[in-house]
């Protein structure tokens, strides 16, 4: 039943009757005696897609990976015919993709931003008869009209396999829209430790005080990092466990991840999503664990010591308390290693999905 319409021009409450009814008269009377507190209608930016491909693609004939089935396209920001997402809402976006190696071909698929910047990649250099699925994910910052897509190595020695299954998927969504009062800095610069290149933000944003947040902002915490070099195990005996460190920082909302120490520290209790992908080094096994403190929560493992390079991925949700740390541990014995290079095979991401009541109560108080 239509009773009234509410308009808010320039912060003024206007009551416009739809019908002359006794109930309306009662509402107006109560509004004069006791103010009616009606919260503003807030429309948050939304952008999300998920697409699949049901046919194979050979390098040299296809470069940008396109898709023939669109499962979700909130905001219509993704074009399956071109395979590209075009950003309408600046902010931090999470992307994940899965591709399968074609028999007797190599695999090399890159997540690319604006046609120039390789963000992460999936790779398998073993040209055998078998087929194998590889996955990768990363959280990156996008500005207005930035584009993101998957790029297949153009040589005919590379190919991806799929059928009506399908094996090839690509998804992405806006995690946190950009806000000068809540995001702080988002960057995608590669800087050597201790060196600040012109135009690159410092490791900590001196212009932003995280304690002076808006009165009605939900807690935000997210990071995504990568390595551009391998990490080789060297020790035969036991020693203190060291966290895997990173030299590329895509996103660090809140500054809660320290890429030098390789550790994320929880500032807002709640449920967090974590995902990591590591490359296997030729002639070495790979064993990487996701740790909270000294407790193993998840891991990847491949004991193959052949010359092949491939990928291993893992992800999960974790409940965290304030002050808990999350980090990756790579087995440090000399028979183990993590492989990466400028293609960024090894990535680590995490973000707050749902803050618990403690964070919300403190933030809104």
From TrEMBL:
Main location: secreted
InterPro entries cross-referenced by the UniProt entry: C1q_dom (IPR001073), Cerebellin_Synaptic_Org (IPR050822), Tumour_necrosis_fac-like_dom (IPR008983)
Keyword field contains Protease: no
Transmembrane segments: none
Keyword terms: Secreted, Signal
Database matches in SUPFAM superfamilies: TNF-like
Superkingdom of this protein's organism: Eukaryota
Gene Ontology cellular component annotations, sorted alphabetically: extracellular space
SMART domains for the chain: C1Q
Residues annotated as domain C1q: 42-181, 216-359
Entry keyword annotation includes Signal: yes
Localization terms from the record: Secreted
PANTHER family attached to this UniProt entry: CEREBELLIN-RELATED, COMPLEMENT C1Q TUMOR NECROSIS FACTOR-RELATED PROTEIN 4
Descriptive protein name: C1q domain-containing protein
Species this chain originates from: Triplophysa rosa
């Amino acid at each position: 039943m239509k009773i009234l319409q509410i308009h808010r021009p320039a912060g003024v409450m206007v009551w416009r009757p739809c019908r002359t009814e006794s109930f309306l008269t009662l509402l107006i009377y109560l509004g004069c005696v006791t103010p009616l507190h009606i919260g503003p209608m807030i429309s948050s930016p939304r952008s999300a897609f998920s697409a699949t491909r049901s046919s194979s693609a050979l390098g040299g004939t296809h470069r940008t990976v396109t898709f023939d089935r669109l499962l979700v396209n909130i905001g219509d920001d993704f074009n399956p015919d071109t395979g590209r997402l075009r950003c309408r809402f600046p902010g931090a976006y999470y992307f994940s993709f899965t591709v399968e190696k074609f028999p007797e071909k190599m695999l090399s698929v890159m997540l690319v931003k604006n046609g120039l910047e390789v963000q992460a990649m999936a790779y398998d250099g073993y040209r055998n008869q078998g087929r194998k699925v590889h996955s990768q994910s990363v959280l990156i910052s996008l500005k207005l009209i930035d584009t993101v897509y998957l790029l297949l190595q153009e040589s005919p020695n590379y190919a991806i396999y799929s059928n009506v299954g399908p094996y090839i998927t690509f998804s992405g969504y806006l995690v946190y829209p950009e806000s000068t009062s809540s995001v702080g800095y988002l960057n995608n610069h590669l800087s050597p430790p201790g060196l600040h290149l012109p135009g690159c933000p410092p490791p900590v944003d001196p212009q932003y005080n995280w304690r002076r947040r808006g009165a009605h902002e939900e807690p935000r915490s997210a990071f995504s990092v990568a390595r551009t070099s391998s990490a080789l195990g060297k020790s035969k005996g036991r020693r203190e466990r060291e966290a895997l460190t990173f030299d590329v920082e895509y996103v660090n909302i809140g500054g809660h991840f320290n890429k030098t120490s390789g550790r994320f520290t929880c500032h807002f209790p709640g449920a967090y999503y974590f995902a990591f992908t590591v490359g296997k080094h030729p002639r070495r096994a790979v064993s990487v664990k996701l740790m909270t403190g000294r407790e193993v929560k998840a891991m990847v493992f491949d004991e193959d010591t052949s010359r092949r390079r491939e990928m291993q991925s893992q992800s999960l949700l974790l409940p965290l308390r304030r002050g808990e740390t999350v980090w990756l541990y790579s087995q440090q014995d000399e028979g183990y290693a993590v492989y990466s290079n400028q293609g960024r095979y090894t990535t680590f991401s995490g973000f707050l999905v749902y803050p618990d009541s403690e964070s919300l109560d403190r933030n809104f108080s």
